[in-house]
Amino acid sequence: MRNFTSDTAKKILANEINVETLLTQYPEYKQEVLNELRVLKSNHESNIVQAIIDKYTASAKMAKNKIMKSGMNETTVNAFLPHIIKARFAIYLLEQLNTAVAAANASDKNVKFNLWDGMILQKLLFRKGFERKPVSLGLFRLGWKLVMHKKILMPLVNQKGIYCFYSKPLIGELAKLIGGKSCLEIAAGDGTLTKFLNEKNVGCKATDDYSWQHYISYPEFVEKADAKTALHKYKPEVVLCSWPVPKNPYEKHVFQTGSVDMYIVIGTRNPAYTGDFDAYNNNGKFTMELNERLSSLIVPPSPENAVYIFRRIQK
Questions:
Q1: Mind listing the pLDDT tens digit for each residue in 271-310?
Q2: For 175-190, b where at least 16 C-beta lie within 10 A, e where not — what string?
């Protein structure tokens, strides 16, 4: 059994140590998780990935409750902290697997855009290479009808850390919502959303903990900082997050930051794909609105697309 120092335990409980560091420090738990995943994968349950996530999430919550109730008792910490570490490993590994599977499926089927589709999508969605541009909805609606293999777009661009495209009307509406307020984007990835808003003269700062640098190229203007640190440093009035990881450890800090009056999330309606819905539904300090009009401005169109606007309840 591992013996954890009090300081290490507190940092792990607060998610202040990134997963890559934990994988290096506790390789034995990674192997345990891999063995458990192999066993669970043999289960023929239809939604096995979500079942695995639910299992590890429940285990982590139970372990955290035990530790907190014990008052950080050393024996209890040593017994239950590994459950929390393993849960973080499992969810991280499943995220990597999901990306790898999408890439493998495309490769196995020799899926790639033909010259026609590639030419249309490059014109509609990108400035150059994989650098996104604000999308003209009128042109997109016309061009999208001409694309033959629509379903392979997102699996292919997911490998570059791209989960959606932002239309010009969406950027304009977000700029109006933010106005002259101080703005921070957390988990910003390559910073595309912040860059588009800055082009609209919105003063927004992009931050990310760089935990996805294995396949996202972070530009210099995206500051390396986890959400909690960035929120404390900048004390923003408005916070943005696009495609937050499901059941993530960082969105809860937005609702706990006193300076924040508005939080805007771009993602999906399905908790299995994006967002910390526990924090959304139980924060107690903000109203929650699913804005259908803004949701319809995300590209490509999907009934799953969602823009949530949280506003602080004024006393």
A1: 989 999 999 999 999 999 999 999 999 999 999 999 999 9
A2: bebbeeebbbbbbbbb
Q: What is the pLDDT of residues 42-54, one digit of tens each?
A: 655 555 666 777 7
CA 102 remoteness from chain centre: 17
Q: Look at residue 17 and tell me whether its pLDDT is greater than 50.
A: yes
State both tokens at 199. Answer: 């082009």
Q: What is the separation of C-alpha 136 from the centre of its chain, rounded to a whole number of angstroms? A: 25
Query: For position 42, what pLDDT does the model report?
Result: 60
Closest CA to 171 of 294, 311, 303: 294
Strand, helix or coil at 224?
strand
Our CA dihedral for 11, 37, 3, 27, rounded to 10 degrees, sits at -80
Starting from the edge strand earliest in sequence, which strands make up the sheet with 223-224, in order?
A: 223-224, 204-208, 183-185, 238-242, 262-268, 305-312, 286-290
Is it the case that residue 61 has pLDDT exceeding 60?
yes
Domains identified in the chain and CATH numbers: 6-108 (no CATH), 115-158 (no CATH), 165-312 (3.40.50.150)
One-letter amino acid of 128: K
Read out DSSP for 251-312? THHHHT-TT-SEEEEEEES-TTTS--HHHHHH-SSEEEEE-HHHHTTEES--TTEEEEEEEE
Mean pLDDT over all residues of the chain?
A: 87
Stretch 33-49: mean pLDDT: 64
Residue 251, Cβ density class (10 Å: 0-12 exposed, 13-18 middle, ≥19 buried): buried
pTM above 0.90, yes or no: no
Residues 6+ apart with CB under 8 A from 120: 143, 146, 147
